[in-house]
Amino acid sequence: MRKHILSLSLLLICMNVFATETKLMVRAKAKDAKFVGSSIGGAHVIVRNTLNGQIMAEGNTTGSTGNTDLIMKSAHERYTQLSDNSTAGFLAVVDIDEPTFVSVEVLSPINKKNARVQASTQLWLIPGKDILGDGVVLEIPGYVVEILKPNTHQYIALESIPKSGLPIEANIVMMCGCPIEKEGVWDSGLMEVRAIVKKDGEPYAEVQLDNPAQNTFQGILGITTTGYYQITVYAYGAQTGNTGVDMVNYVVRD
């Protein structure tokens, strides 16, 4: 028994001796925007051995969203590096003793469940052959849409609703948290933002939401009767194909 344990220990030691530390930089980048980093809570990264499903490395991207002028305003030639040492990423460090085929999965942004996107790819890791710089960059399409008014499951007295109507308000940002505003880098004038309203399960109204301030989209819904209401706010960018949705239910009572 002792000889068996000793042999196993020696085998494990030998495996560790031959294993080579290998680094893989993983980044999540919002479509038509910047990198997903600490300002929005990061993207969650999982690196797995595709052969057996073993998790080899796991963690969140941290750091800044990157250089706006370089990423969004400059022409990019081949081999142009878009990141620097402060740009958000997750450095996976694995020990491998032979070429290993891995899957890289990203959940982003990790703290925004209604907007979270799963993106993945696969590649070979070669012992000692680091993949750094921009590394593996996974694109995250969409917008983060959060309805602020009315609140989820809010009970609203009909008599309390202004004659002008019920305010609808949503906060919308890029998937990296980058700001949206009129004539900004991410121009709200190029987006369509509307609220689709149902009452008691039936179509009731549609309301266009305007952008009076950075990230803020507002509209007014005329309501004259009580009932169970549902508001779905969507954002759509025709040029990029980015989309985002949030939904709330509320009650208008006597």
TrEMBL record:
<feature type="signal peptide">
    <location>
        <begin position="1"/>
        <end position="19"/>
    </location>
</feature>
<keyword id="KW-0732">Signal</keyword>
<protein>
    <recommendedName>
        <fullName>DUF4198 domain-containing protein</fullName>
    </recommendedName>
</protein>
